[in-house]
Each structure stands twice: as structure tokens, then as C-alpha cells.
């Protein structure tokens, strides 16, 4: 005996109305997933940009503090407190850079950060016989150059990660 086919059934026992409802839900869920992924990506990008901007601001402050510190003689009354400030700011910078590198593999700035740290806190930092340096001294120029290299590597890492 032949079985009767329901003309309203289109696919897997579903009617056109059922397929329209299921299709609406399907496209709503897919749209939400795409929108959510884009929002998460945008938020990660904003967080990284904010952290990079904070690092750049900290670098600018370090350069200024280094100029003041190395521009004064070791016998200056504020020499020890300025050296402590610079050491503290360097540690803050290193912590921030390490966080960026841990979150995003595209940031490879450890070498540049180490070069800057060596330039600032190497000889003659905290030396008792340190003399005041002029603004165009080799050490201050190296600190500025290493700072620029680190800033450029931070920017390049951002472009690699999100560009």
C-alpha cells in the first residue's frame, strides 16, 4: 500500500514555516557569534594600544629623569632619590613590557628593553665619582636612541599583532 506524502513537508519532516523559523534562529546565532568575536578582537586591540601608550609615556618620563640625573653631579643632594626613582620606573617598564610579550607573541622587545636598562643603569649610574654630563654626551644620546628603538619595536609589535 503506497504511503501518502504530505505536500507541506519540505525537508526532514519540516514545513516551510518551520524552516523559516529555524533559519531565522540560525542566522541570529551566527550573527551574534561574528559580532561577539569582532567586539572581543577590538577590545584586545584597545587594551594593547593603551598599554603601549602607557609604556611610551613611561619611556618619555625615564628619558627626562635620566637627563636630570646625569646632568647633575653625584654630589648633588637629590642624586640618591633620583636614582631610586629611575630604578623604580625601569622596573615598572620591564613589568609592563613583559605583560605585553606574554599576551601577544608578536611583541619581541626584550632585547631593546635590556639595552635601554643597561644604558640607563649601567656605568656610571650611582657611581660616587660620576660627573655631570652635557646634553650631547654619548651616554644621554645612547639612552635616547635606545628609547626610540624600544618605542619603534612596541609600535611594530602592535602592527604585527593587530595590523
Q: Which labels suit this protein?
A:
72% helix; 163 residues; two-stranded antiparallel sheet; mainly alpha
List the helices and strands and how they pair.
Elements: E1 9-11, E2 14-15, H1 16-71, H2 79-103, H3 110-121, H4 138-162
Antiparallel strand pairs: 1-2
Helix pairs in contact: 1-2, 1-4, 2-3, 3-4
> What is the global morphology?
rod-shaped
Record field, number of beta strands: 2
Q: If strands are numbered along the chain, what order do they take across the biggest sheet? A: 1-2
Provide the residue-averaged pLDDT: 89
Low-confidence stretches: none
Beta-strand residue percentage:
under 5%
* Residues in helices, as a percent range: over 70%
Distance between the termini: 67 Å
Largest sheet: 2 strands, antiparallel
Provide a count of the helices. Answer: 4
Gyration radius from CA atoms, angstroms = 29 Å
Listing every helix as H and every strand as E from the N terminus to the C terminus, the arrangement reads: EEHHHH
Structural class: mainly alpha
What this model shows, in words?
The protein is mainly alpha-helical and 163 residues long. Helices cover 72% and strands 3% of the residues. It contains 4 helices and 2 strands, in the order E-E-H-H-H-H. It has helices at 16-71, 79-103, 110-121, 138-162, and strands at residues 9-11, 14-15. Strands 1-2 form a two-stranded antiparallel sheet. The longest helix is centred in the N-terminal third of the chain and has 56 residues, at 16-71. It is rod-shaped and about 100 Å long. The model has no long low-confidence stretch (mean pLDDT 89).
Amino acid at each position: 500500500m503506497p504511503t501518502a506524502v504530505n505536500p507541506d513537508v519540505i525537508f526532514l519532516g519540516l514545513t516551510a514555516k518551520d524552516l523559516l523559523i529555524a533559519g531565522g534562529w540560525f542566522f541570529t546565532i551566527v550573527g551574534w557569534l561574528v559580532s561577539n568575536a569582532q567586539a572581543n578582537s577590538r577590545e584586545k586591540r584597545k587594551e594593547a594600544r593603551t598599554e603601549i601608550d602607557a609604556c611610551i609615556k613611561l619611556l618619555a618620563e625615564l628619558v627626562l629623569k635620566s637627563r636630570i640625573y646625569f646632568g647633575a653631579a653625584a654630589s648633588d643632594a637629590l642624586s640618591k632619590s633620583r636614582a631610586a626613582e629611575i630604578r623604580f620606573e625601569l622596573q615598572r617598564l620591564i613589568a609592563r613590557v613583559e605583560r605585553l610579550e606574554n599576551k601577544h607573541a608578536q611583541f619581541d622587545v626584550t632585547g631593546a628593553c635590556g639595552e635601554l636598562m643597561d644604558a640607563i643603569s649601567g656605568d656610571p649610574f650611582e657611581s660616587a665619582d660620576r660627573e655631570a654630563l652635557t646634553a650631547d654626551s654619548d651616554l644621554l644620546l645612547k639612552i635616547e636612541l635606545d628609547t626610540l628603538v624600544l618605542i619603534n619595536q612596541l609600535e611594530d609589535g602592535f602592527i604585527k599583532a593587530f595590523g
